[in-house]
Specification:
transmembrane helix; elongated; alpha/beta; AB_hydrolase_fold; 17% strand; two-stranded antiparallel ribbon
């Protein structure tokens, strides 16, 4: 039996962009959905007729009983009423199933998604205008909503839980951020409507102040070294789901949330080389998010540079520099196909590399989780699979919705509390009331459970397991756009895993002393790669 203080969570996803059907095919399936809806309506009418028949029999039976009429030819009213009710229930169940199938078909086709996205963008523009016109008033309004969310959580859970604040403000977050960015970058309310990168322009201005302060505090010398481990942290992957699994293991190992006995620390990324059938190399780069360590290239301050609209500021972000140096040390060639998967800041790094380093690396596909990258100038040659949660603040920091193009797919998840299980009860008469199945038995396509089991309250939905559940839910739906992106990702890294290498970065005010080792043990030549390793 579920504990009242335990909460299980599930995610339902919607898909935007990444079109997988032609207009003609979509029209055909829309017609099928309409036919299913009409059939559902007819069965609902039949259910109403059977219910009415049962009520008439009930009234007739009551009348006869009241009149004390005894007739050997009297109809078996009790049996007939039960059968009428059964027929009504069956018809209503069929109606519900048909209607649900119709809605699922339209959802998978993205018929509603495009309209919802257009409405969302108009709403964001309105919130942006209100924010730039009266920033103080809008800020107070956001604060009031956040306080309301906090109080709601207090009533629901019996404790203060800040996670509910983000849920309460989520509809307004993108518009508020774009309006604030417009003010910071000195854009007028009307000028702001001509662009979507107000936040990025504001981040560029903020970086002019934050970057020097960050460099003064932690230094600007980036020290990258290869580290080794016997633990199987980031394993072989041929799917987006598998890549997310490796990202989860690496991210949580370095934060101490899981213990894989790897010895890997913070600011560590993984670079894997796959060998294709034709002998060419393909690469998967796994980049976790912010770790908040004072000497880490993945500290908090780097996010402002990564979000800048200035490509040079993005290129100078420490986290980008670390990943680029690791890719160089790993030996990625300019023609080798590369896929990058990243969470939070790691996803912004992936978008920045795809935007600004295509002259050195052939980035074919990036997968991001909870990363605000809507305004990064990612070329059409790079496929983008973005997974976001509706009430996570981080993904909304770009102040805009992601582009909905064939090569840019966004899977958006909505988190809700999952039903808990109840015990089956055997009555004294021998009948049984079956219990409901808990989270692990959620009906397919309704929602997907979040891994990790019960929690003591609402969690921050920015944790990676929520993005994993969101993507899995879209896969469960059989969405063609998701399948199309999945196939492209698999094709990029299709092959046999040959090596997994880990690279760690540290910032310092003085360069650490390097020790140089040659692969061949001979004098350096053009063909001998030099690997720099730094002494602590």
């Amino acid at each position: 039996m579920g504990n009242d203080n335990e909460y299980y969570w599930q995610v339902e996803s919607k898909v935007y962009g990444g079109k997988g059907y032609s207009t003609a095919t979509r029209e055909e399936y829309t017609a099928v959905a309409k036919a299913l809806d009409e059939a559902a309506g007819e069965f609902e009418k039949l259910a109403t007729v059977w219910n009415a028949t049962r009520e008439q029999l009930d009234n007739r039976h009551a009348f006869i009983s009241a009149c004390n009429t005894h007739n050997s030819s009297m109809l078996p009213y009790t049996v007939l009423k039960v059968r009428c009710q059964n027929h009504a229930d069956t018809c209503r169940q069929i109606s519900d199933d048909l209607a649900r199938t119709s809605q699922l078909l339209l959802k998978v086709l993205g018929v509603y998604s495009e309209t919802e996205l257009s409405v969302k963008r108009l709403f964001n523009e309105a919130v942006q205008f209100g924010t730039t016109a009266n920033w103080l008033g809008m800020t107070m309004g956001m604060g009031t909503l956040a306080l309301g969310g906090l109080l709601f959580g207090l009533v629901k859970e019996g404790k203060l839980n800040p996670s509910w604040m983000s849920t309460a403000t989520s509809p307004f977050q993108e518009g508020y951020m774009s309006g604030t960015g417009a003010i910071l970058s000195k854009l007028s309310p009307l000028t702001g409507f001509s662009t979507t990168d107000e936040v990025n322009q504001g981040a560029g201005i903020l970086s002019l102040l934050s970057a020097p302060l960050k460099n003064a505090a932690q230094g600007n010398y980036l020290n990258v070294r290869e580290v080794t481990t016997e633990a199987d942290v980031v394993r072989s992957s041929q799917t987006v789901t598998g890549a997310f699994d490796g990202l989860y293991r690496l991210a949580n190992e370095r934060l101490g949330k899981v213990d894989l006995k790897s010895g890997l620390g913070y600011a560590t990324i993984a670079v894997q080389r796959y060998e294709k059938e034709d002998g060419k190399s393909a690469w998967l780069v796994t980049v976790p998010g912010t770790d908040g360590q004072s000497d880490s290239p993945f500290d908090w301050e780097q996010n402002a540079e990564l979000m800048s609209s200035d490509p040079e500021q993005r290129r100078q972000a420490d986290s980008v520099r670390l990943v680029i140096e690791a890719m160089r040390q790993a030996g990625i060639g300019e023609d080798d196909e590369v896929a990058i998967v990243g969470h939070s800041q790691g996803g912004i790094v992936a978008a920045s590399i795809a935007s600004d380093w295509q002259d050195e690396f052939n980035v074919k596909h990036i997968v991001t989780a909870g990363s605000p990258i809507a305004n990064h100038p990612i070329p059409e040659s790079t496929w983008v699979t973005s997974v976001e949660i509706q009430d996570e603040l981080v993904a909304a920091l770009d102040g805009a919705s992601n582009p909905a193009t064939p090569n840019w797919l966004t899977v958006s998840g909505s988190v809700s509390q999952a039903p808990q299980g109840t015990e089956s009860i055997i009555n004294s008469d021998g009948s049984c009331n079956p219990g409901s199945t808990p989270i692990n038995g959620v009906t397919p396509y309704d929602a997907t459970p979040v891994a990790g089991g019960a929690t003591s309250g609402k969690e921050i939905s920015h944790w990676l397991q929520y993005h994993q559940a969101t993507y899995q839910d879209a896969l469960n739906q059989g969405n063609p756009a998701v399948q199309r992106h999945e196939a492209h990702f698999q094709n990029v890294i299709k092959g046999e895993l040959k090596e997994t290498r880990y690279f760690e970065g540290r910032m310092s005010k003085e360069p650490l002393e390097p020790t140089i080792s040659l692969e061949s043990g001979t004098e350096p030549t053009k063909d001998n790669k030099i690997i720099l390793k730094y002494e602590e």
